[in-house]
Amino acid sequence: MPVKPFRGLLRRQPGERTPEAEPERCLSCQADLRESRLYAQYKVCHACGFHYHLTARERIALLADPGTFDPHDEDVSALDPLDFALRRPYRSRIIEAQRRTGLAEAALTGTAAMFGREVVLAAIDFGFLGGSIGVAAGERLARAFERAARRRAPLVIVYSSAGTRMQEGLLALMQVPRVATAARALAQARVPHVAVLTDPTTGLAYVGLANLADYLIAEPNAVLGYAALRVVQAVEHEGLPEGAHTSASHAAAGLVDAVIPRPDLRDGIGLVLDVIMNSYRLSPAREARVRASGHTYRAAWEQVQLSRHEGRPTAAEFALGAVAPFVELRGDRCGTDDDSVVAGIGSLAGQSVVVIAHNRRSKTGQSWVRAAGLRKARRAIALANRFELPLLAFIDTPGFEPTLENEEAGLGAAATAVVRELLEAKVPTIAVITGEGGSEAAMTFAIADRVLMLDNAVFEVIRPEDAASILAGRPAAAQDTREVAERLRLTSHDCLRLRVVDATVPEPADGAHANREEAIRLLRRALVSHLVDVQRQRTGRRLKRRWKRYRELGPVHSSVRGKLERRLAHLAERLTELRTRVRRRGQRFPNDDVPGIPL
Predict the structure, then answer these.
(1) CATH number, span 300-551
(2) What is the CATH number of domain 53-277?
(3) Closest Cα to residue 125, out of 213, 54, 180, 51?
(4) DSSP label at 285?
């Protein structure tokens, strides 16, 4: 792990205790720490990566630009709201903690700069009664939220807390709604909130405060969760698996967005704030003449096979190639991370955008979309609305996972919610079908102000081979599959004629798999062009156009024309039945050489 220059810690305040003698060997792996620059700078073992505890001031010093931290609300305190005394007065414990740490309370809050950007910083000091949250700490955190909203400065909170200050009773417990009420102002101001979870973050700090954040970062090997580790071990009689109740298990379950080692933490937070708070917006230098792209005409079944080509970039690979840098959102905050759906915030040609993309080649080998992936998409849509960032959806999926487990996980409700939220999204939205857009799963994500489709992509109501088998009542022959593929009108230019998509995007001559870099470059150019065009429209007008588009999609006829069309169709059907009966009798039907009656 590379060692970065040390930025220095804040000076210790009068009354703050001198740190105990530094250990000569790592408590985890027994490595010699005396010559370790990594330990000296970050309190991290150079051999095993074990992260030692830091004080609140040390936390802030590692994040803030040197000399920029200005503490606030140091006069906010509540020594003993319940006059609690059992064996030893609570008041005397508070006074002892104040003398030992040099802090008046567990929460240290203030303003600072990070990479030159003003931020509101807060850190919970585990050395102050286990970092427990009481009335004073809750009030300080609430004021930090309100200050960040007033100054429109992002809020960064570092947690290291065992939970509720039990000596303050229900008053301590009620700090959750107190802070959540203050957090409303930050949400309304559209200012980001990043939380860093360190060892340990449990109890009230985890279930009531940390998860208010837009983006959750954890340090490696931190104990995280509602219950303390000893409580979980006592309940789980069979013992805990290795890594359980830690940042690693939370990342695997999609409960935190990233696990970042302490030396990289400042840079990681800076990147998150950069992509969320980027104020640049794409606009054209001059009016550009847009010409329709060419099309390589292929048989529909051949195009289906190209869309599934194993060398073709997935939608996620197209997205990450076009949008960089990229900060990924992990999971649905409900305990599952469906990695067949990738979501996050990144930069397209300098403008920040929110991305949702399918990933056919996920780490789990899962290509079907699950309910958890839909909930992750909803989280991304909510962030796009909150921070007023355009939303880009990249579609390449065979469909929803057809399992009972997926059904019972809330697939129907989650899919309906995504459709509703995409229709109502106030930000510009663009969807692009990059490969095989399969049935309801593709439709769910393909609701946008502008829908694009790569030249060799397909958009299917059902996979052609499945449709052919259903129609034939048996495994379909290759010829039947090819014919059904043509009849389903699923190619990019079929979709363009049907007005299901707005434009096609060219590919390299032999397909995207033949030249991935060129394919991504062509898609990036199209995305920039269409995003500039969509952003010109006012929000109200853009929403009305979106609603009108889907309200009127698909031709229907009414009144006289509708009646005439139905009668002609019924007449043609009767003539076909009559012709079939006559042929069965071995007779020749008049005009039998005519293949059919055109409507």
Answers:
(1) 3.90.226.10
(2) 3.90.226.10
(3) 54
(4) S
